[in-house]
Write a structure and sequence with these properties.
Layout (H helix, E strand, L loop, with lengths): L28 E6 L4 E3 L5 E3 L12 E7 L5 E8 L3 E5 L6 H5 L3 H4 L4 E5 L15 H14 L4 E6 L3 H8 L5 E7 L9 H19 L3 H9 L5 H10 L1 H5 L3 H12 L9 H5 L4 E7 L4 H13 L3 E6 L6 H4 L1 H12 L7
Parallel strand pairs: 6-7, 6-8, 8-9, 9-10, 10-11
Antiparallel strand pairs: 1-4, 2-3, 4-5, 5-7
Helix pairs in contact: 3-4, 5-6
C-alpha cells in the first residue's frame, strides 16, 4: 500500500498492513510480548508498522494488558515502553491505538504507555450496556488493575469518563485532559450543529457508509485542515467500524439521568493534580470546555498548544507529547 506524507514529524505515517481481527489472549495481566514498533493506519481500516523507522524514539517492549470490569467486560489495550505508567483514554471515534499511536515514539522511552479501548472497540469485549456509568467503571477497572500510582490521559469524549474516574480512584496520581467535552458550556448554536452532525452520521450509517459517517460527525470538532489530514490518512476509514458503537453510546448517554463530568459538584470534588490542554486553533466550545474544568477543579492548570486544533493527537503528537512529558515528569526531556 502506498503511504501518505505526515502533516508534522511523527503524525500519521506507515508502511505495512495489519488486520483488525480481535485476538484471544487471556484476560489476566500482561499476556503477550512482541518487538515494539510505531504504528499508523491506512484507508482500508488496517493498522501498519513503521518497520523500525526511528523518529523521536523507538517503541520498546510492546505487550498487552487486560482488566475485568464489575459487569464482567474485558477491557484490553496494548502496552508500550518503560517507565512510570500512563493510561490513555481515547476519543469518540477511534480506539486506543488509532488515536494515540502517534505519541508513542515520543513517550515510550520515558513512560509505560497503556492504550486501552472503550468496550466494544479494539481489544475490548463487546457489551450492550454502553451507559455513562459503565464507561466510568471501565476506566476505574483498568487503572486500578495496574496496582500502582498511575497517570491518566483523556481526549475529547474519552476525557469525560476519565475525568469522572479520577475523582473516584486512589490509583490516579495525575490527570491530563486534551479538550474534554463539557456539554454544560455548549451554546444553542453549537447544540444544533452537534445534533445535525449526529443525524448525518446516523443517516450515512444506515446506508452502510461508515467512513463518511465518521467524517460527518468529526465536522463539528475538527477544523477543515484536520478533516483533510484525517481523510487523507485514512483515519475515517479506520474508525468507521466503530460507528454503531458510537451511536449506541450517544443514545444511552441521552438517557442518562445522573450527574456527569461537566457538573461543577463532580469537578469540585476532584483533588488530583490536573492539566487541561487545548489547541490554539481549536473551536470556541473546546476553549470554554477547558476553562470550565479549570474553573471548578481545585488543582487544575491550563496549557495551550500553538497551531493545534481538536485533533492534535493525530496532527501534533510531538507537541502534545512534550506537554504531557513535562507535566508527568517535570524536567525530563524527551529522547
Amino acid at each position: 500500500m502506498k503511504g501518505v506524507p505526515s502533516i508534522r514529524r511523527g503524525a500519521l505515517s506507515w508502511d505495512k498492513p495489519y488486520t483488525s481481527a480481535r485476538p484471544s489472549e487471556p484476560a489476566d495481566q500482561h499476556s503477550r510480548d512482541t518487538r515494539g514498533v510505531s504504528s499508523g493506519y491506512g484507508k482500508d481500516g488496517s493498522r501498519h508498522s513503521l518497520g523500525g523507522q526511528r523518529r523521536a524514539g523507538t517503541i520498546v517492549n510492546k505487550r498487552t494488558h487486560y482488566a475485568i470490569t464489575p459487569d464482567g467486560v474485558r477491557i484490553g489495550g496494548t502496552v508500550n515502553g518503560q517507565g512510570p505508567p500512563l493510561v490513555f483514554w481515547h476519543g469518540a471515534y477511534g480506539d486506543g491505538e488509532l488515536d494515540w499511536q502517534g505519541l508513542l515514539p515520543h513517550l515510550s522511552r520515558n513512560f509505560t504507555c497503556y492504550l486501552p479501548s472503550w468496550r466494544g472497540r479494539g481489544l475490548s469485549d463487546e457489551h450492550a450496556d454502553l451507559g455513562y456509568g459503565r464507561r466510568v467503571d471501565d476506566v476505574l477497572a483498568y487503572v486500578d488493575s495496574l496496582e500502582e500510582p498511575t497517570g491518566l490521559v483523556g481526549w475529547s469524549g474519552g476525557a469525560n469518563p476519565a475525568l469522572a474516574a479520577a475523582g473516584k480512584s486512589d490509583s490516579v496520581n495525575a490527570v491530563a485532559l486534551f479538550e474534554p467535552t463539557m456539554g454544560a458550556v455548549m451554546n444553542d448554536q453549537e447544540r444544533v450543529a452537534f445534533g445535525e452532525s449526529v443525524a448525518r452520521m446516523g443517516a450515512l450509517a444506515a446506508e452502510g457508509k461508515w467512513a463518511e459517517a465518521v467524517q460527518a460527525a468529526a465536522a463539528t470538532p475538527f477544523n477543515d485542515e484536520e478533516i483533510a489530514v484525517a481523510e487523507h490518512a485514512g483515519y475515517f476509514e479506520a474508525a468507521g467500524r466503530y460507528v454503531p458503537n458510537l451511536l449506541n453510546v450517544l443514545r444511552q448517554l441521552r438517557n442518562h439521568t445522573g450527574p456527569i463530568a461537566d457538573d461543577p459538584a463532580v469537578l469540585g470534588a476532584i483533588s488530583t493534580r490536573m492539566l487541561v490542554i487545548h489547541g490554539a486553533n481549536t473551536k470556541p466550545f473546546w476553549v470554554r470546555s477547558a476553562r470550565h474544568v479549570v474553573d471548578h477543579v481545585p488543582n487544575a492548570l491550563i496549557q495551550v498548544i500553538p497551531g493545534a486544533g481538536h485533533a492534535a493527537p493525530l496532527t501534533h503528537p510531538d507537541a502534545l507529547a512534550e506537554v504531557l512529558s513535562e507535566f508527568f515528569l517535570p524536567g525530563q526531556r524527551l529522547d
